[in-house]
Amino acid sequence: MKEDMYSVEQVADRLGLHVRTVRGYIRSGRLRAVRIGKQYRIAGSDLDALTGQAPAAATVSGQAEVSSIVQIDGVDRAAADRLGTLLLASANTSHDQANPLRVQTVYDEQRHRMKIIILGDPASTAELLHLLDAVLNGDNGLLDAVSNADNGLLDREVHDA
After folding, report:
1. How confident is the model at residue 138 (pLDDT cuts 50, 70, 90)?
2. What Cα–Cα distance (Å) separates residue 97 from each residue in 60, 78, 107, 150?
3. DSSP letter string over the chain?
């Protein structure tokens, strides 16, 4: 981003001051300036700071961030640990290191519930969610304990009733 630079004469004209007054501001430190050869140059932001004007609004970078929370019910601790390790490994190895995915997992022992929080750019987050979907809906054996935990809980409830 290129910033406008002004000469002492241009600043004096803009502010309605004498050139010597502007040079005095520079020497006293009231106005920041850069010396190039025998002349001073004043940045537009430094001129705005002197006059008390707000700097120009920053442009939008066009970067978006997605926040996703996934809740998985009926999962035991071992399966939650395996799933968390898989997701963290994927997030830490296959994405842009300048904008890393942030993944946190929480396991509720009493409810047999796992929550996964994913923060990152839309494409990387979608890729990780696709991986999660494939693991949860695939026949890969990683989360066999999820279905066994569900069946065991339901069976116990039926027998107790």
Report:
1. confident
2. 22, 29, 27, 38
3. ----EEEHHHHHHHHT--HHHHHHHHHHTSS--EEETTEEEEEHHHHHHHHTPPPPPPPP-----EEEEEEEES--HHHHHHHHHHHHHHHHHSS-TTS--EEEEEEETTTTEEEEEEEE-HHHHHHHHHHHHHHHHS-SSTTHHHHHHHHHHHHHHHHH-
Amino acid 132 reads L
Highest-confidence segment of 54-63, 92-101, 133-142: 133-142
Distant-in-sequence, close-in-space partners of 86: CB < 8 Å, separation ≥ 6: 131, 135, 142
Answering whether pTM is above 0.70, one says no
Which single residue is written with the structure tokens 């700097």? Answer: 55
